[in-house]
Specification:
5-stranded antiparallel sheet; elongated; alpha+beta; single chain; 23 helices
């Protein structure tokens, strides 16, 4: 009834009387929901602003801040004269920030020539990755990077990187090794001294805006990068080149499976050169197989053949079982020993022990050493360093193979004196001959003379280290005289250099089959080991040629390479001849090619180099007559000339003539003669 009245006459409802209204209920419900929402938001804000404030600050910072590693500059590797052999250069990496790219087609077409990729390859690489930054190419020079930046392509960025560069290319690559883009040394000196060369990485925080663009002004360096130390090698760049050139000649003429050579200063143990063939370009190590990367002078083991006879002879001389003048009957070239027949290449009847060495008689050597006890021979073998690591500061060295007398057979006393049943490395053999050259003292070989701080101050310096006195000085002197006879009238006459006393020994050994035992049919190891000048040695040289084709005797294959290295060294160091009466006019085949690709020397420019340019700015050949070889190399080191030197002493003729224009890579011939020759 009340509803009917109210409907017909709304004003009749009492003022304080309320009726249910669906609209009003909905309004109340919405208001309640809003209040709940405001309360929830308020609680959340309180939680974010008060309770979880630190967490969200860190979260936002992490979104805007990115930590990047600052790579240090890797230290430089120098030769003994501070010529850079391995350096670090700054290069740019071409990158694309994927989210910032607005026109992928245009970007791909524009960057294609610089990235070395087709536009389709660039497009696919960017579209198929979820990474923010896509690397298209590394190793761009700074000028090219600036050229690309000037195009203002949206999304293109660059990252500076320190890249390893080897300015001499293949030179000494097996010794130096190489480092990768992550600043890690992987072979050779780069690996052995990686901790010193690498330095310490730094850390930088970069700030990005909401579009992920870097705000350069807000970058923060947390830790500065510490550049790596520098390494100074004992290697001489010129002697290294001379050695490698000699090996190249052997490879070209005899096509061996491999070849190796070492040059050591016998008085100090400094390694002056260490070369291998085949080799590799450290600027492109990935293009070479692992066989080319190893340093064969310290890893490859071979039977030394007759080059081991001086070590056995040293034991016999030391124990006074024979003298150089004593006569030995060599059975006319054939002898049975413990059921095995030994032969001589050149049959002999009765000859002196000195001639046993000079003529490389296997039978004479076996007869003499059989007068010793096996333990005595073994003690001298170990004393010369065989069967042990030399201690050279390079990775991957092999100790060789030397069995104790308890494992010898009855035949061992016949095999060992002629260099069989034993495995040695090229460096071990060089070290053993250095003992003879150094009055019986064994030195520890080393390739790094000093470590320098990034500022160039000496941090650590290696000094010559004597290991032990192996034989008496008198015995070493006697052996030297016997080895001189090898070169003057024995099997090593191809190693003779007129005017200089050389001592050495040839060796020809069947190639051992290390996997199955025995020997590889038809394959030989040709070796020559010696030192010069024998009256005051400055270099001990060993040349090893594995499986030469055609001729294979050490005196034919390895001895000429030894002579070429000796010729280059005495010319370069300017060693006067010790036997002037033998000095003859230089022969064309004894000339050496010294390719000096030096960086400009620090300090004041050389006056001769300053005079070698005229007003037009073109370099001119200076007058080098009367100058020594070393002075010429120093004066013209700023040019990439290829020098062909003949003779020794001072220059008396040159080509190009003085005043003629010269160009990088041009061949320059200079002839030398001693001042006392008219």
């Amino acid at each position: 009834m009340r509803e009917e009245i109210a409907f017909k006459n709304p004003g009749s409802v009492l003022a304080n009387e309320k009726l249910d209204n669906p609209g009003r209920l909905r309004a109340k419900l919405c208001l309640a929901l809003l209040l709940v929402g405001f309360v929830a938001v308020g609680v959340k804000l309180v939680k974010i602003q008060a309770l979880d404030h630190e967490f969200w600050v860190r979260y936002v910072d992490d979104q805007r801040r990115t930590a990047i590693t600052i790579y240090p500059r890797r230290g430089t590797v120098y030769d003994r004269n501070r010529t850079p052999l391995a350096t670090s250069v700054v290069e740019e990496a071409l990158c694309v920030a994927r989210p910032r790219v607005t026109d992928l087609t245009r970007l791909a077409e524009t960057l294609s020539p610089y990235a070395g990729m087709t536009p389709e390859q660039i497009t696919e690489k960017i579209e198929t990755t979820k990474l923010y930054l896509v690397y298209l190419r590394r190793g761009l020079d700074v000028d090219t990077a600036k050229k690309i930046s000037a195009m203002k392509i949206k999304g293109v960025e660059f990252r500076s990187e320190s890249s390893r560069h080897y300015p001499k290319g293949f030179l000494a690559s097996n010794l130096i090794g190489f480092a990768n883009r992550e600043n890690r040394g992987l072979e050779g000196v780069e690996h052995r001294y990686d901790a010193d060369l690498a330095g310490e990485s730094g850390k930088q925080i970069i700030i990005k805006d909401s579009s992920r663009r870097e705000i350069v002004a807000l970058a923060q360096t947390v830790k500065e990068a510490q550049d790596g130390s520098h390494i100074v090698l004992t290697i001489d760049e010129v002697i290294q080149y001379i050695t490698e050139k000699a090996l190249d000649g052997v490879v070209e003429e005899f096509s061996p499976e491999s070849a190796a050579a070492v040059v050591v200063n016998p008085k100090t143990g400094e390694v002056l050169a260490m070369a291998c063939r085949p080799t590799f370009d450290p600027n492109k190590p990935s293009t070479s197989g692992t066989e080319r990367l190893r340093n064969r002078t310290i890893t490859d083991v071979f039977e030394p053949g007759s080059t081991f006879k001086p070590i056995a002879a040293a034991a016999a001389l030391e124990r006074n079982v024979i003298t150089p003048e004593d006569r030995v009957y060599c059975e006319l070239g054939r002898m049975r020993f413990h059921g095995h027949t030994f032969d001589d290449v050149h049959p002999h009847a009765e000859i002196s022990f000195a001639d046993v060495i000079a003529q490389s008689s296997n039978i004479g050597m076996i007869k003499v050493v059989s007068l010793l006890q096996p333990e005595t021979l073994y003690s001298y073998i170990k004393g010369f360093g065989f069967g042990n690591l030399t201690g050279v500061d390079l990775p991957g060295e092999t100790a060789g193979i030397v069995r104790p007398p308890s494992k010898w057979s009855g035949l061992s006393m016949g095999s060992l004196p002629i260099g069989q049943e034993i495995g040695v490395t090229t460096l071990q053999l060089a070290n053993s001959f250095s003992v003879i050259a150094n009055k019986g003292v064994l030195m520890r070989p080393y390739v790094v003379s000093a470590i320098l701080s990034p500022e160039g101050e000496i941090v650590k310096e290696n000094r010559p280290q004597a290991v032990r006195q192996v034989i008496k000085p008198k015995t070493a002197e006697t052996l030297t005289m016997m080895l001189e006879r090898v070169v003057t009238s024995g099997t090593g006459t191809a190693a003779k250099l007129n005017g200089y006393r050389c001592a050495g020994k040839t060796g020809t050994a069947q190639k051992s089959n290390l996997s199955t035992g025995g020997y590889v049919r038809g394959k030989y190891i040709a070796v020559f080991a010696g030192f010069v000048p024998s009256d005051d040695p400055v270099a001990c040289i060993v040349v090893v040629v594995d499986s030469p084709q055609g001729k294979y005797y050490g005196g034919v294959v390895a001895a000429p390479a030894f002579r070429e290295i000796v010729q280059g060294i005495v010319n370069y160091i300017e060693i006067p001849p010790s036997m002037p009466e033998e000095q003859t006019a230089p022969e064309s085949d004894s000339s050496i090619l010294l390719a000096r690709r030096h960086q400009p020397k620090r300090g004041a420019p050389d006056p001769a180099a300053s005079r070698s340019r005229e007003d037009d700015g073109r370099p001119r050949m200076p007058d080098v007559k009367g100058m020594t070889m070393k002075a010429i190399l120093s004066s013209l080191s700023i040019y990439s000339l290829q020098f062909e030197f003949e003779g020794s002493g001072v220059a008396f003729s040159q080509s190009p003539a003085a005043g003629e224009t010269i160009a990088n890579g041009q061949r320059c011939q200079v002839a030398f003669k001693r001042k006392d020759i008219p």
